[in-house]
Specification:
49% of the residues lie in helices and 29% in strands. The protein has helices at residues 2-41, 112-141; strands spanning 44-56, 61-69, 75-79, 94-100, 103-109. It starts with a helix and ends with a helix. The mean pLDDT is 85.
């Protein structure tokens, strides 16, 4: 009986805290999704070609140098801001590029990881804490 009393008094608040943590992560995830969509509203997607990799001093990362053409046929080159420790693509690989039509020099390579990686991570955190909260509630009522 004493064990049942403590379980009823402790597990309900614990499950509520876990659900609140899940809710906080859910809010961050929704905010992240909105910021990505707002960022993409003024962008146009096209294909670009990886020309080479540039060593950025002091970062130990290499950044791809990419060439693309805009809707008018003008050719632009840029070094992507997202670098890696090893080349992610072969030179000559065609990748998706998002650029600002008002200033095509503002461009970025589109990858699933850099665009949606944090959202996917937050989704898994939401699910983990939600399931933990549900399991605690289930243990009390079982």
């Amino acid at each position: 009986m004493r064990d049942r009393f403590f379980r009823a008094r402790l597990i309900t608040p614990i499950s509520q805290v876990l659900w609140m943590i899940s809710g906080v992560f859910c809010v961050f995830m929704m905010y992240n999704i909105l910021t990505v969509f707002i960022h993409l509203t003024d962008r146009i997607s096209t294909n670009g070609e990886i020309l080479s990799y540039i060593d950025v001093p002091g970062t130990e990362r290499i950044h791809p140098k990419i060439r693309f053409s805009d809707a008018k046929g003008n050719i632009y080159e840029f070094v992507d801001a997202n670098g890696a420790t090893v080349p992610l693509y072969l030179i000559g690989t065609i990748v998706q590029v998002d650029y600002n039509p008002k200033n095509p020099r503002i461009a970025e390579m589109t990858t699933l990881y850099y665009r949606w990686g944090s959202t996917i991570g937050l989704f898994f955190l939401v699910m983990i804490f939600w399931v933990l909260g549900s399991r605690f509630t289930y243990k009390v009522h079982a």
